[in-house]
């Protein structure tokens, strides 16, 4: 009997240990990795997540999607500054990488995600097949890289910054954080980084508990671009009205895709077909929660924390620079609603399979992501996965769903229908049946407020404002409170009776060599060369928002008198004839996005952060 008794004791001990471990795991916070393109609404989502109770939900890492609305060098430093403001320098940040994909489909380490997978070669040089739909200037990458000038005016600056050869890559951070154990992934940009991770590390999929995605449009009907109900038949031409997607720059060729999915349709397909449970917050839901005027006014009156102030200032300048008077009907709570739905589902229950949450109605749908257009099996030069290859890349199926025509640009003739809407579906999150269908939990509509007399008519409006303004996990300071004695002073030299030399205008593209030349010109005696102005050409080695580095350098040198002008955002004949804010990258595609290219030029190899802040930042 003694051996049997000892056996039962051992069983009880083992059961107790396992039970204790299960209890401990359930008592731990849910770990989160956020992959973001650092658009304005992404910032709202990030701050909303950082304000959650850390004993329940812990943001472990942020990786940056570098082929969408912002450029890597600018966005990574903004993330560092936001985390510093929030006292979260413990959060890992990953961006870029110089790895590539071989012709045979072998994925090398540290692919940077600068390019969609279909354009990714062995370097960071490549074509802007999908990204050309994003404006380069106003209300696009120029404004968002600088957050309309608010980033440098408001955010404090800590010790962390982009450093060449020292910056963790997106893939390094994903591998490290996901290897540590169960984690939930939030995707609120294009899916390139995470798709590359899944393709390279299938053994780590088991650690991913769930994927929450903001993007796509399933049954959505775009409420923007519609004619007023009382408009005459000849006075108004509907634009995006009723489309599934929101590509306001490309609806004539693709009315079906949403920007995040269109950024890399093949990557999104890999994520959706990974076998990992997915919850999708698409345009179907976000179109039902615009930034209303009442919400805006209430937000303006409730800015009790630094993070609330930063969000409101960002929202206000977005409104002030929006298209005409359409802001309150066409700017939605995209990524922030996704963050709210995800956190509510996660915190409601560990077994919340139906996605019960406070903020959105949910429904299961069978979905896929369209990556090419029928007829499949065609070879028209648009599809590098199949064209001019003995065997399809990544062992894709001949004649399969990836083998059709792939949209090549905004005005792809294949996609244009004369006197009709475009027919391309690249990036469309379509409802399907059969083997391509993936069962996805989908948010369909924002839930109304439970308070009938509330000024805020959805539940998430209230949650967003109360969360940002709660005193727990609040920001420590802004730039002004970090440096209370800072004054905005312009330093202009008094040349007195000096005989000034030859007046010079310097045209530069903001490469590192150009900055050395600028230093030289500033050090030459003014009796020899009188530098009067600088013209910045943003069609070369740096992105347009890097103009702020010039302002800072001139401020350091006491030459705030020198005028700085921003040149054309596109090379000759490269802007779109119908929508000049977007265009092709025929020439600039030769410049690397990663090391030695845009990433290093935009940050001046990490040295731009050491310059003093000029009052003359690029503000609207």
Percent helix range: 25-40%
The spatial strand order of the largest sheet comes to: 3-2-1-4-5-6-9-7-8
Derived structural class: alpha/beta
> How many β-strands, per DSSP?
12
Gross geometry: globular
Q: Mean of the pLDDT scores?
A: 92
- Computed over alpha carbons, the radius of gyration is 26 Å
The fourth-level CATH homologous superfamily of the largest domain is: Ribonucleoside hydrolase-like
Structure annotation, total helices: 19
Kindly, what is the distance between the CA atoms of the first and last residues, rounded to a whole number of angstroms? 85 Å
What would you note in describing this structure?
InterPro entries: Inosine/uridine_hydrolase_dom (IPR001910), Ribo_hydro-like (IPR036452). GO terms for molecular function: hydrolase activity, hydrolyzing N-glycosyl compounds. The structure is a single chain. Helices cover 29% and strands 12% of the residues. α3 links the parallel β2 and β3. The strands form two sheets. A nine-stranded mixed sheet has the order 3-2-1-4-5-6-9-7-8, with helices on both faces. Strands 10-11-12 form a three-stranded parallel sheet, covered by helices on one side. It contains 19 helices and twelve strands. The N terminus is likely disordered. The protein has two domains: 402 residues, Ribonucleoside hydrolase-like (Inosine-uridine Nucleoside N-ribohydrolase, Chain A); 131 residues, no CATH class. With 620 residues, it is of the alpha/beta class. α2 runs antiparallel to α12, α2 runs parallel beside α14 and α6 crosses α7. The radius of gyration is 26 Å and the shape is globular.
